[in-house]
User: What shape does this take?
Amino acid sequence: MSGSQSLVSTSLPLRTPAPGSRWLALAAILFLPLAPLVVQAQADPAPADAGWTPALSMQYRGVSGTAISPDGSRIAFVVREPLMEGPQSEYLSHIWMTNADGAGPAQWTRGEASAGSPQFSPDGAWLSFTSGREGEGEAGSQVWALPMAGGEARQLTKAEGSVGGYRWSPDGTRIAFLMRDPQTAEEKKATDEKRDVILVDRNYKFSHLYVAAIDPGADEPAEPVRLTAGDFHVTGFSWAPDGGRIVFAHQVDPRINTGRLSGDLSTTTVPDAAEIGEILAAREAGGDDDEDPAEDADSGPAAVGEVELLVGGAGIERSPHWSPDGAWIAYVSTGDQPEPIGLGDVYVMPAAGGEARRLDTPNRSASVLGWSGDSSELLLLESLGTRRHVLAVPVDGGELRFISYGDGLVGSVALTDDASRMAFTWQTPDEPWDVFVSPTNGYAPTQVTDLHAGVPRPEMGRTQLVSWTSTEGFEIEGLLTYPVGYEEGERVPLILNVHGGPAGVFSQGFTGSASAYMLQYFAQQGFAILRPNPRGSTGYGKDFRYANFQDWGYGDFRDLMSGVDHAIEMGVADPDRLLLMGWSYGGYMTSWAVTQTDRFVAASMGAGLPNLISMTTTTDIQDYLVGHMGVEFWEDYERYERHSAMYHIANVVTPTQVIHGAQDLRVPFTQGQEFYRALDRRGVPTEMVVYPRTPHGPREPKFVMDVSERILTWFRKHLGADAVAAGDESR
Assistant: This one.
């Protein structure tokens, strides 16, 4: 690894600019306009004097799926709440609507089936959404619509499978959507007869493009026609402004690992509404004729789109966006080769084909939100250190500008058709997420919801952005959350919390939110929590993100421990009461740390990967790991062993809890089991907590609530004088 320079520094500031005049605009976030939407908690609220508990954090409802009407006057968004009565442990999502001034709030969808993905029709007359409200049977979710003038929801699509991502055509006459290939007749029969053998990495169900002619006033939902078919998997798409073509991203198969190795862009022609009607009429007239050329025996109706490759090659292309003037296509790409560690540069190219041009962004890992109305700028969302903001980048390569700025996180951004206004969510460590609107030329955020007005807000442990110099001159940032009621100079137990990835990042999100690690719950119990962003984290540019290449467990470990030492030097952390927890890559670092130091009183490894060899041969993202190691394990066993905690297990003395999901494919369950069995056989105090039905992290609300309480119990147990006695019942 290279030496003394700071890889945190970039040509653009990581702390987004905030001139005094702009801070006045940002201050609008703190005040409520007119009558912001209030969403009352469904469960009986806990009293504020009870302090922070997992149950209280669960009352902070999630918000996502923001949509803004074409004229910017209405905002739709999705509110998610947990259902935990009796045997229930699930989430229910519904769509809410408010005026852009915060007036007239209302819940627009109801019922036992969740609704999501709200979109306004191009004329603003309809609010569409996806839902399985007729039951989650074979067909699954379909597109529905509610008239903005009032009335009942109407089903718009009648697809054989579940509708995935969808988009209205620019003229509002059609809806294009993604759908997985349905089961063939033979596959259905095999399932019914319990002969449905799984052949691994064969017989893929690809996602393909479909289009339906839409008449929201019709009595019956529209049957779609298929646009694409073949052995490729469509991941995203965008309409041409004239509605005659669609540009789409695709990879060679649906596996998540393949997305790190394969990705191209193509275009397809799209029939207009009248032509769709003719195709369906001809199909119906053909009946069951086996010779009908419009039918394919394996995949149903044949594709009618004419597909042409637009961008191929060794790089990975995704997320295309057609410009409003029809001249350009923007997309995200890794360049001329795959980049398994992570790279997402923004490119623009002529829609007719030709040379692409790369646009520079601070982190080189941006998401494209859309185009300006005059097609001169791209609006992007990107992590900038511990913040996340909206940027505008001129297509001609000029200097970018910050559309939003300040401490906190922007999320779920939606743009009007001309991109003159945006709706988005905003949160800070001390303030939960709400929905805001702002012009995109001159940031003036106006809060239009007050989602948690009915939820208690006890005193919080404050969160501070801290930084320190690690080895090799690396400048590291982290977020330090103090205990509730902390008094200056008091030394307290410190929890080192390590993020996943490793290209994850700890950001300035609300610390009272519900997650596997309930930060304010730990702060309420007297713990400080340090969340560092060591080398390998996103938000600090490509060089910093690649700085742990072939170096897992070494430089990043030094970054973490120097952060612990910094908290001790600040007079906050008690060096004799240090604790450790992390999930995924954070779990890897937890397993690694307890083999390298005995400074931690106790540790909790969540979905950790202590054996990089067995991890490579069992995970569903094997090339991500190999990308960091630089070679296959059979080419250099010693390299993989050197970075694997299992090969240093004899060093462990720290009581270590192991937590894992039973259905985890990302970090397979056996990774946690390996470490637990090894610790137990060595006589190190340990316990293993397994969550059934759980993939790579808890999804059921009761399990989400459970994790932090179990970790706290484990930490408290081993902070006691008799915690590591030979007769410890946890073994």
